[in-house]
Design brief:
Blueprint lengths: L13 E3 L2 E3 L3 E3 L15 H12 L4 E8 L11 E2 L6 H13 L3 E7 L7 H4 L4 E2 L13 E2 L2 H21 L3 E6 L4 H6 L14 H4 L1 H14 L5 E6 L10 H14 L3 E5 L20 H8 L6 E3 L6 H9 L5 E4 L1 H5 L3 H6 L14 H7 L27 E5 L3 H13 L2 E6 L7 H5 L7 H15 L3 E4 L5 H7 L3 E4 L3 E3 L12 E3 H7 L6 E5 L3 H12 L3 E5 L11 H13 L3 E3 L3 E6 L2 E6 L2 E6 L2 E4 L3 E3 L2 H9 L6 E3 L9 H11 L5
Parallel strand pairs: 3-4, 3-13, 4-5, 4-6, 6-9, 7-8, 9-10, 10-11, 11-12, 12-13, 14-15, 14-17, 15-16, 17-28, 19-26, 20-21, 20-26, 21-22
Antiparallel strand pairs: 1-2, 18-27, 23-24, 24-25
Helix pairs in contact: 1-2, 2-4, 4-7, 7-8, 14-16, 14-22, 18-19, 19-20
């Protein structure tokens, strides 16, 4: 890969009111769900933000921070509702700035999306609502409650300023309280805070005015606006243009343009969706205001970011998931080392974990959430043999080498990648190739001894004489006990994708999980008719929900038939027998594709137990333990390097 660049606009300074940013890259605010003690800053949170500041962004925007206990909608939420929060936030702001970035903080109230389990109160919003996103019914705010909310926002802003933050952001996107006031879907008021686009933007305008009055006209204030909710009757572009003008008139110094609600999945578009998803909305806003405008949404490539800035579509680039994957992306790009940037693959495991009230994770960066941990120093260099060049093996080899061990990596195929290669073949999964290329390049840079076309056997282990053996031999497809499963018209999904041939017209895929649905996408895109058979009530239960939404919509548009609560009884010549609740159905099929699970390859372990029972320094990682996701494979490859001593 050739390093592109230079990125003149990306690293050009920008003034936001009195605040000068050293470049145009911003860490977007993302909820981490780290275990915050009663809403206070913790050492882990400080280390997380400090690392991203050290990585070279111009502005670090701290995650959504509650201004009132009654507005808490997120587990482990950072809070700024009282003066005793200032001390912890001062430490956070100080460490961000000492690491070279400016410090911003986002102020939040969940409104109708608050969690009654956390608040012990009924959710409130602009108007009474039966429920939002499957939540409990909410009531409309009174005039007095609106005044109290304005005061809470101003007080929180004042505390943030006292804590040393350089910029305040008012969160009016993604379905939270101020977004609810802006949206015709949730705001049916007829008073001064509703009834028209101007009325629906009035509350936010008054909040900005009040913050400016309290902190001074020069103190930088940003507003995050949702330009599109992704649901009929929601916020449209014309609405946000009205709101943008109102915010500028109120004194806003920066407009941060986003899109989407939690349930429409637009705010964090997964792999397979367009890059720069929201840029056109930011560009439209930029045409009607004179303050800087920030855009975000699937902008992980500095070439795209530079083009957006150069073409005047936006003034700042917000990156969230890309900086989870590699906090040092800005520094590496600035140094001409784009090839060393660990790529975000858009898998949305980060969002999925937070949605399940678990700490944020990153598939490609297992070090996320461990930034403050001291990695043990090397006591003695060890000779390490890694069996298998899939993602777990590649990451293990890399991190063992980075720690200082002598590493030999053997792969029985003639190419590194393993199932990562296969997984990148279905439509819109091309980003997985970036991860493979990154790992292979880092392996090359570490001068790791790589032997392709060589399978690890007990004889090889005897010959190499490693002190530690890491087994990352992966998994193989399951073949269920079904009549006809060994017939000529049956193939596994892995083999079909590997061969790349779609020659039949009618396919039945057994298994409606990740592999089955992606294989259906692959086959149906090539014009064949596909039926997916799944015994469970729902398909895609092993997938991140926001990834499933887009994949399911795509395959259904391609005519894929989904048969749930259905089993495959028998495979015949050019047909199958399906069993549904209360009935059987014979369905024509030219080929049956097996996507009903994987099982670990234990051939090497069994052979070693027979031949070398005294060799004990063996570690199994990834699918060699049991088949799971890329997240576990990468994490275990990372963690095993800590166990060798």
């Amino acid at each position: 890969m050739i390093n592109p660049g230079p990125f003149k606009k990306l690293f050009e300074p920008l003034k936001v009111s009195r605040l000068e940013l050293k470049n145009r890259l911003v860490l977007s605010p993302m909820h981490t769900n780290f275990d915050l003690v009663n809403g206070d800053v913790t050492p882990l949170l400080i280390s997380y933000y400090e690392e991203r500041a050290r990585g070279g962004v111009g502005l670090v925007m701290v995650q959504a921070t509650g201004v009132d206990r009654c507005g808490q909608g997120l587990a482990n939420q950072l809070m700024l509702e009282a003066d005793h929060r200032i001390e912890g936030l001062s430490s956070l702001a100080e460490r961000i700035k000492a690491a070279g970035a400016k410090a911003g903080i986002q102020l939040y109230h969940g409104g109708l999306r608050t969690d009654p389990v956390l608040t012990k109160m009924q959710p409130v919003g602009p108007s009474p609502t039966e429920s939002v996103d499957g939540g409990v019914p909410g009531r409309g705010m009174s005039g007095e409650e609106i005044r109290e909310f304005i005061e809470a926002m101003v007080s929180a802003a004042h505390r943030a300023c006292e804590a040393g933050f350089d910029l305040i952001e008012v969160h009016s996107a993604h379905g939270y309280l101020l977004n609810q006031f802006l949206s015709p879907l949730t705001n049916r008021r007829t008073d001064e805070f509703g009834g028209s686009p101007e009325g629906r933007a009035e509350l936010m305008g008054r909040i900005v005015e009040a913050i400016k009055k309290s902190l001074g006209r020069e103190f930088p204030v940003s507003c995050r606006l949702a330009a599109y909710e992704g649901t009929p009757g929601g916020i449209a572009l014309d609405d946000v243009l009205v709101a943008a003008r109102r915010m500028e008139a109120a004194g806003a110094d920066l407009l941060n343009i986003s899109c989407g609600l939690g349930e429409t999945c637009f705010s964090t578009m997964p792999l397979g969706t367009p890059y720069g998803s929201f840029v056109s909305f930011a560009q439209a806003v930029k045409k009607v205001v004179n303050v800087p405008v920030m855009t975000a949404g699937r902008i992980k490539n500095p070439v795209l970011a530079e083009a957006i800035l150069t073409e005047g579509q936006a003034d700042l680039i917000g990156m969230g998931r890309a900086l989870l994957a590699d906090p040092h992306l800005p520094r590496k790009v600035g140094e001409g080392r784009w090839i060393d940037v660990r790529p975000c693959i858009g898998c949305n495991q980060c969002i999925t974990h937070v949605g399940r009230k678990l700490p944020i994770v990153c598939t490609v960066n297992p070090g996320l959430g461990r930034e403050g941990e001291a990695r043990p120093s090397l006591k003695k260099q060890r000779k390490v043999l890694v069996a298998g060049g899939g993602p777990a093996g590649l990451n293990a080899a890399l991190h063992c080498a980075l720690k200082g061990h002598q590493v030999i990596l053997m792969e029985k195929e003639r190419r590194l990648g393993g199932l990562l290669d296969i997984a990148s073949l279905p439509p819109h999964k091309e980003e997985l190739r970036e991860l493979r290329e990154f790992l292979v390049e880092q392996i090359r840079q570490q001068r790791i001894q790589v032997e392709l076309g060589r399978e690890v056997t007990p004889e090889v282990v005897k010959q190499v004489a490693p002190e530690f053996l890491i087994v990352a031999t992966g998994a193989e497809s399951l073949r269920p006990d079904i009549e006809g499963v060994d017939g000529p018209g049956v193939i596994t999904a892995v083999d079909l994708l590997r061969r790349g041939q779609v020659s039949a017209q009618r396919y039945v895929i057994l298994g409606g999980g990740l592999i089955g649905l992606e294989t259906a996408d692959y086959i149906s895109e090539r014009g064949a008719r596909v039926t997916v058979v799944e015994r469970l009530p729902l398909v895609g239960q092993d997938m991140p929900p926001r990834v499933l939404v887009f994949l399911k919509k795509r395959i259904e548009a391609q005519g894929v038939r989904l048969e749930v609560q259905t089993t495959l009884k028998k495979i015949e010549t050019r047909s199958v027998v399906l069993v549904k609740p209360g009935q059987e159905e014979r369905l024509e099929a030219d080929q049956v594709v097996l996507a009903c699970g994987m099982r670990p390859r234990h051939n090497l372990i069994k052979a070693l137990n027979r031949s070398l029972p005294v060799f004990k320094n063996i570690y199994l990682i990834g699918d060699s333990i049991r088949p799971r996701s890329l997240l576990e494979a990468m994490r275990e490859g990372y963690e095993v390097s800590e166990l060798l001593d």
